[in-house]
Design a protein that fits this description.
It comes from Rhodococcus sovatensis. The protein has 255 residues and is an all-alpha fold. It has twelve helices and no strands. The protein has two domains: 202 residues, no CATH class; 36 residues, no CATH class.
């Protein structure tokens, strides 16, 4: 499969992932995130106490936008996406394993696993200050597809982003959408970090295969995240050079 096809599919995946991550980080429909910054007063009502309790529970999870989140450094925020959101998505990735070897032969688990790792890798990159869509595409290509791609010939997705689900299952819906666009590069899915061999063997057994699949995919996700952090660190100097060149060009134009 040529690089252009892979890059185009990954670009479409990133176009789905970024808005969902923005939604999780910024949306506060009932004001619970904002409420984590307030302190109780003697004039609080029963409703205030209830909302404060809910806000405290949300704050305990270090959810993006809460007071606890503000106290985390970049590494801790990156790990949050792996430990919390990645763990949630991994349930969906591992679920087909309850049916054992019959379903393991289908590409569904690889599709969902690739989508899950893609979402977490983009989140980790964003927490490290890497927000360019092209950088996200290169990151996914190198870590999950083992390809160094040239984006100059990539067919960037210019279609309007479909309206995202704002409900509690927005993340899972997005993972399914990402899986759909990745069907075009199905031959690349097997290159992603996979479960250790022992977990893959146990996952062939019906019922217990789901549990084995979960722990195996969690380990694979952690390895993918580590590779993603290493990629971000390795390319940090390149980004500084680009920003320096842009600053120099801007300064020259102002003269």
């Amino acid at each position: 499969m040529d690089d252009r096809t892979v890059a185009t599919a990954l670009d479409r995946a990133v176009a789905i992932i970024d808005p969902v991550l923005d939604l999780l980080a910024n949306r506060d429909p009932v004001g619970l995130k904002a409420r984590t910054f307030r302190r109780p007063t003697e004039n609080d009502t029963v409703l205030d106490n209830v909302l404060d309790t809910l806000a405290s529970a949300l704050n305990a999870t270090d959810f993006p936008g809460t007071e606890a989140w503000q106290k985390l450094d970049a590494d801790e925020r990156s790990e949050w996406w792996v430990a919390r959101i990645g763990a949630l998505n991994t349930v969906a990735v591992a679920f087909p394993g309850v049916f054992g070897v019959l379903v393991n032969r289908l590409p569904l688990q690889d599709l969902l696993g690739f989508a899950n790792q893609s979402m977490v890798l983009v989140a980790v990159a964003r927490e490290s200050g890497v927000t360019e869509r092209s950088a996200h595409v290169r990151l996914l290509a190198e870590v999950l597809c083992e390809r160094e791609i040239d984006l100059s010939e990539t067919e960037q997705n210019t279609e309007p982003t479909p309206r995202r689900d704002n409900g509690p299952f927005a993340l899972l819906h997005a993972m399914w959408d990402v899986s759909s666009v990745l069907r075009d590069v199905s031959s690349e899915l097997a290159k992603r970090p996979h479960s250790r061999k022992v977990f893959r063997i146990i996952s062939m057994i019906p019922l217990v295969g789901g549990v084995a699949g979960y722990f195996g995919e969690r380990g694979a996700l952690s390895r993918a995240a580590k590779q993603g952090r290493r990629w971000v660190a390795d390319h940090a100097e390149d980004r500084r050079d680009v920003r320096s060149d842009m600053s120099t060009t801007s300064a020259n134009l102002r003269k």
